[in-house]
Amino acid sequence: xxxxxxxxxxxxxILFYGFGEEGGWRGYALPALQARYSAFKSTAILSVIWxxxxxxSFFYRYELKGMAYIGFVLGIVAGAIWLTFLYNYTKGSTxxxxxxxxxxxxxxxxxxxELVLSAVISVLVMLLAALVLIKYKPANLSSYExxxxxxxxxxxxxxxxxxxxxxxxxxxxxxxxx
Length: 178
Fold this sequence. Notes:
By secondary structure, the protein is an all-alpha fold. The chain is built from six helices and no strands.
C-alpha cells in the first residue's frame, strides 16, 4: 500500500465495484427485507441471492476445486452476517459496508497467489460472524435496531399482492397521522 499505484488500485474499484454491489445488497435489499423480517432471516435470504450472484464468476474468476466451493459459500454467508451487523451498527451506512467489502476484496486479491492469506482473511470473517451471532439477537444482529427502508410490516396471510399493498399503504397512512 506504500506505492501510489496500489492506492489507486484500491480507490478506483470503490467507485465501480464497492458502491455498485453494496448499494444494491445493503443499500436496498437488506433494508427492504428488514422491513418485514428479522435481521438474521433477512441476511439468510440475502445470502442465497448473493451466492447466486457469484455463481457466474466461478466460470471466469475463481479457481475453486472440490471443498473450496463449500468454503466459498460459508464465506459468503459469514460475510453477509458481518455486513448486516456493520450496516445496522452504523445505522444504515452504505459507505461503511462498501469500504469494508472493497477492502476485503482488495486484500483477498493481494493474497490471490498466497492461499494462506486468503484463508486467514476468510476465517477471520467467519469468526466475526460467529461473534455477532453469539453476542447479538437475531432480530437486529447489532446493538442497534435494524435499519429498514419502510416501517416494519407485519407478515400477513394475504396471498393477493394488491391486497397486501393496500394493507401496507393503510399502515403507512396510520404512521404518518401519528
